[in-house]
């Protein structure tokens, strides 16, 4: 996809919107006419996309690329726009996610991102991203859901997720949201390439309190590590630092319940939330 100098200075979402408007106008179509031609997506929705106020869904972009015969140009712009929704400090790690042979994650306060339901992710974003509109939050949820497809591939990476028990105890999004989230977590934990463990409260202190750690093992054996807090983080590939962070992960894993014990504890929390929902 080649861009002129003016386009290169614009954000991806603005470039996408302006490109769509030019394509529409070349066909001499109004927004309402385009809406009718592409399966009933509302003209107001298309208008917001053209103005850069809202990102289109992947389904809409696929439909538009086919309708205008643009060889995936709009899809490429959407990919770039999605990339800007990922914090700078974690972008490199996230971009390597799809290439990883093994993904290991520890999270001390919430369910790991690749195991979150859309509702749980949305509720978490609402509380943590101050000042963002509902549309902006929905865009971030869409990016997270898209990332989760890595675990649905025919040959997915090995995934090892450890969470502090606090992630189960804290009712993010309310009781019904937690019921759905924990059901989803239990279903994922039965997949052959997925291991889920819980580090219980009674084990006390551990080397990853208050943060999140991600380790990506690549096909050449190299490991990329990333440490995150609520609004900052840093990736590293320095061998000594990666070794230190891997040791921290291994120590946390040694304190966690086994996968069977973790399944039982997660199921216990499900029953508690279901009981609250019925009351």
From TrEMBL:
<dbReference type="GO" id="GO:0003677">
    <property type="term" value="F:DNA binding"/>
</dbReference>
<dbReference type="Pfam" id="PF13560">
    <property type="entry name" value="HTH_31"/>
</dbReference>
<dbReference type="InterPro" id="IPR010982">
    <property type="entry name" value="Lambda_DNA-bd_dom_sf"/>
</dbReference>
<dbReference type="Pfam" id="PF19054">
    <property type="entry name" value="DUF5753"/>
</dbReference>
<dbReference type="InterPro" id="IPR043917">
    <property type="entry name" value="DUF5753"/>
</dbReference>
<protein>
    <submittedName>
        <fullName>Helix-turn-helix domain-containing protein</fullName>
    </submittedName>
</protein>
<feature type="domain" description="HTH cro/C1-type">
    <location>
        <begin position="20"/>
        <end position="75"/>
    </location>
</feature>
<dbReference type="InterPro" id="IPR001387">
    <property type="entry name" value="Cro/C1-type_HTH"/>
</dbReference>
């Amino acid at each position: 996809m080649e861009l002129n100098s003016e386009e290169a200075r614009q954000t991806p979402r603005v470039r996408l919107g302006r490109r769509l408007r030019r394509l529409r106008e070349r066909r001499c179509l109004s927004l309402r006419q385009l809406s009718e031609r592409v399966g009933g997506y509302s003209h107001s929705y298309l208008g917001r996309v053209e103005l850069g106020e809202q990102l289109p869904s992947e389904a809409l972009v696929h439909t538009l690329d086919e309708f205008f015969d643009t060889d995936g140009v709009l899809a490429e712009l959407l990919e770039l726009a999605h990339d800007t929704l990922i914090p700078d400090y974690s972008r490199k790690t996230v971009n390597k996610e799809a290439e990883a042979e093994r993904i290991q994650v520890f999270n001390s306060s919430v369910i790991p991102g690749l195991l979150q339901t859309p509702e749980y992710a949305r509720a978490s974003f609402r509380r943590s991203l101050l000042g963002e509109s509902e549309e902006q939050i929905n865009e971030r949820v869409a990016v997270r859901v898209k990332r989760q497809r890595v675990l649905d591939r025919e040959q997915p990476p090995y995934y090892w997720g450890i969470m502090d028990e606090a992630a189960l105890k804290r009712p993010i999004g309310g009781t019904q949201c937690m019921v759905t989230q924990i059901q989803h977590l239990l279903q994922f934990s039965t997949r052959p390439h997925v291991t889920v463990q819980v580090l219980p409260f009674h084990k006390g202190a551990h080397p990853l309190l208050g943060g999140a750690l991600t380790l990506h093992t690549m096909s050449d054996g190299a490991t990329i590590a990333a440490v995150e807090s609520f609004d900052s983080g840093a990736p590293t590939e320095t061998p000594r630092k990666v070794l230190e962070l891997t040791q921290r992960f291994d120590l946390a894993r040694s304190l966690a319940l086994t996968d069977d014990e973790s399944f039982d504890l997660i199921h216990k929390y499900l029953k508690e939330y279901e009981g609250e929902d019925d009351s």
